[in-house]
Amino acid sequence: METVATGLTGARAGIQPDDRITSWHTDGGEGGVLSSPIDFHHVERRHSHLGPMGLTIDRAGQHLEVVLAVGEWGVDARPVWPKTIVEAYLTVRERPEGPERDALAGVLESQGDTETLVWLHSRLGRLAAETRDWDAAHEAFERAHAAAGTDLGLLAASWEVRADAEERDRDPTHAPNAWSEAVEARRALGDTLALAQNLLQLGMISARRGQPGPGLVSIRESHTLWQEQAPESLGASLTENSLGVSAAVRGDLERAAEHFGRALTIQERVAPEGSEIAGTLNNLGNVWRRRGDFEAAEDFYRRSLAVDEAIDPASIRVSRTLNNLGLVAKLRGDLAEAEQLYRRAIAIKEELVPASMELARTLGNLGNVAYERGDLEAAGEHHRQTLRWFEELSPESLTVATNLLLLGDIEK
Questions:
Q1: For residue 48, what are the contacts with CB-CB under 8 A and spacing of at least 6?
Q2: Could you report the per-residue pLDDT of 226-258, keeping only the tens digit for each?
Q3: Residue ranges in 48-112 assigned as alpha helix (H)
Q4: Whether 276 contacts 234, CB under 8 Å
Q5: CA distance 185 to 42
Q6: Residue 97: in which H helix or E strand, if any?
Q7: pLDDT digit string (tens) for 213-230?
Q8: Residues contacting residue 363 through CB under 8 Å, at least 6 positions apart
Q9: Sign of CA dihedral 279, 72, 214, 217
Q10: pTM score of the predicted model
């Protein structure tokens, strides 16, 4: 293992960096040897939202058995290499544009190790995406696709890694196309559960990018596949959640609450401590806030916050729920509590996403509180910060016009 994300299923199961995972098995009798990071990727893609997974681990010569709960694993694997290859790889990680990258790729090519070559370029693409170096990321991912050639399994894995990186690290243009490619590769493989996951991702990001119609088509196809294959699984609950979000966007709060309720029922049974149930609780809070029942909304938000804080108290998910609790406090007229909640959210966002619309929105909310308290100087400062970020990141946004109007009112 190369990295283990804090708070997710892998870390909670006790997996550590440098553990070597040798095999997997499920209660249903499925299982096999894990000989490469691509093998690990395929198993996670098919099974992480289906049910618990048993893993056999080699930790410094000691054999251990661990059980991964259902949900996102948060574990990155790398190949088992000789020491010299590991050292070369670590050098490439530090200097991905240097000659060492091509030298290492040449070694893998000479060994006929296409699978590891695809993994290497995909990994370098993901690392570049994490630093927002999109030119380097796209070049690395294209190398991965080229190395995969016509091997559908390798193509699917390389497109999935790319799509996840571009979505997670906010590439402004490419993620929907990458998910579309990943969908088609899994469809050609006849890999139903992985296809269902990819369709859901494609549907959600299409909706967020202003294509709700095509997005809903993909989400509904994913929902159908999960209902056919595993209707009481975490994967099925996630499609219910996405259908609920789509209904809420259309203004159909009754249908949204029905979908979120079905999702919650499944998640309370299969993943009561996972980040997924926290998301569902937050969505239910949004529904009740929009219905004007602030007490019910606050209850759902606080339940969501408790789950997420138990996983990672300084996560972006915690900051979003704090922001939502701030909205409810402001609507109840408790400006002091709203300010406190917004400031807690901002402290996390400034650490994790310092140049983002995430931060800008909460700064704007804090500005609204200051305005209602009559502190026009503080309100002007917060709205100018909000305007600056939105003009840079989303200049056509309605928020730009809103902040200009507010600033005009403040500065009269």
A1: 9, 68, 70, 71, 72, 73
A2: 999 999 999 999 999 999 999 999 999 999 999
A3: 83-94, 99-110
A4: yes
A5: 13
A6: none
A7: 899 999 999 999 999 999
A8: 346, 382, 383, 385, 386, 389
A9: negative
A10: 0.86
